[in-house]
Request: fold
Amino acid sequence: MKGLIFSIEEFAVFDGDGIRVNVFFKGCPLRCRWCHNPEGWEKKIQIVKNPNGCLNCGICKKICSSPDNCVLCSNCIVNCPRGLIRESGMWISADELSKKLLKFQNILKVSGGGLTFSGGEVLMQADFLCEVLDKVSSMHRVIETSGYGDNDKFKEVLKRVDFVYYDLKIMDSEKHKKYTGVSNELILKNAKILFDSKVPCVIRVPFIHNVNTDLENLTSLCEFIKNASNVEKTEILCYNKMAGAKYKMLSLEYNEEFFGPDDADLKLMEEIFKSYNLEFSITF
Reply:
């Protein structure tokens, strides 16, 4: 079986303990308006153009064999005088990917690290993910997920992982759909499946002023997770404005006006989490 990935990040120190190798799956059913990694949206190979250093020579446009509909001819990649154009996405078999990852087994084990599978959304390619997880079962395996995927396939994934980072962005379904493009019923159902599985996990919340920093959302979140014994903590990830450049590389516009939490937002969050006696951390 083959899957579509867009990056393998070696010797990473985020998304899990120790030194890790992170594999980024391509394709996501959500369209979060604050997304920092739009390269992971489409489940297809795309052309990415880095505008930094561009000479505006126009060669890429002149040489293009299909300017109205990219056919991945690679003419622009080969002929860019600054080498600023590349393909994003690679189809790879479970065998080939697992062999690449197993080469890191010894050094990752020494550091107490392992593998992290992120995206995009890994549950969009759950069958491929399960096949890879089976082949690297001797290594520590982590997934990072929005939770938007088939319930039964998520259960199969959970049988094969050691740890989960699980996003709970907004608790109100209509508001969730407004900001992410999908409702959160499936996400909340999968969260309950995760809690029942007892697989250790961390809840992640992208914390955005006037989006999910209000009393109602924070209280609903704490109520939802308060009895989940396998939730080690909640990571509050404060929004920052670093997304724009990646949109330009994909010829997309980023016109959103979001802001990170202010002092009052953070104070309220801390008060609510402490009132529920729930562990949390804040990342700026």
